[in-house]
Specification:
mainly alpha; three-stranded antiparallel sheet; two-stranded parallel ribbon; 5 strands
Length: 189
């Protein structure tokens, strides 16, 4: 097989494992992506029922409570992966999550409480729309290029360094540096 093709394959595999070190959750996310976000909405989850009953018996607004009390955290911070849609139970247990996690939890609670709402999926954001109010805010991002750069910005610095260093090694960076140094030293003779 051509050396460049092998390097491209190795580079892709390497980057995947740096961005998705938790392979089990990466597999679950692949299944979630195929099934769609709606498949994670679970009004019958015992944790969702307990939370919904708490809201109902204490006259608490589910939207305000979830968006104020479930701390925003990236999937890197919570699950160590680039992307992962958490179940409502996972979001409740962790007490934090990103926009998808909060929207999935809120929609699950609202379905249990028979509140009419819908999940809105944008290019780089997810929120719940109820009575024409976007809970979780609306993204103004219009361009997929902006989405891509926002995604790159979200990657922790250490992972960026690991990716750059790994690609440097895969593509023979050290050997190339030695050859450049050798050429420079021979040109001075």
């Amino acid at each position: 097989m051509n050396t460049k093709i092998l390097k491209i394959v190795y580079s892709g595999i390497f980057i995947f494992f740096v961005l998705y070190p938790n392979i089990y959750l990466a597999g679950k996310q692949a299944v979630n992506e195929i099934r769609g976000m709606e498949s994670l909405i679970d009004p019958n989850d015992p944790e969702v029922i307990k939370l919904a009953e708490y809201f109902s018996s204490n006259n608490i607004n589910p939207e305000e409570y979830i968006y104020k009390n479930i701390e925003w955290a990236s999937d890197y911070d919570v699950y160590w992966n680039l992307e992962y849609w958490a179940s409502p139970e996972q979001t409740i247990q962790k007490g934090r999550g990103d926009c998808e996690d909060k929207a999935i939890l809120l929609k699950s609670v609202e379905e249990y409480l028979k509140i009419k709402s819908k999940i809105v999926i944008q290019k780089d954001h997810v929120y719940v729309l109820k009575d024409n109010i976007p809970y979780g805010g609306v993204s103004g991002t219009e361009s997929y290029i902006t989405v891509f750069w926002n995604l790159i910005k979200e990657i922790p610095l250490i992972r960026k360094i690991i990716i750059i260093f790994g690609l440097f090694i895969i593509w023979g960076g050290y050997e190339n540096l030695k050859q450049i140094k050798k050429r420079r030293s021979s040109s001075y003779l």
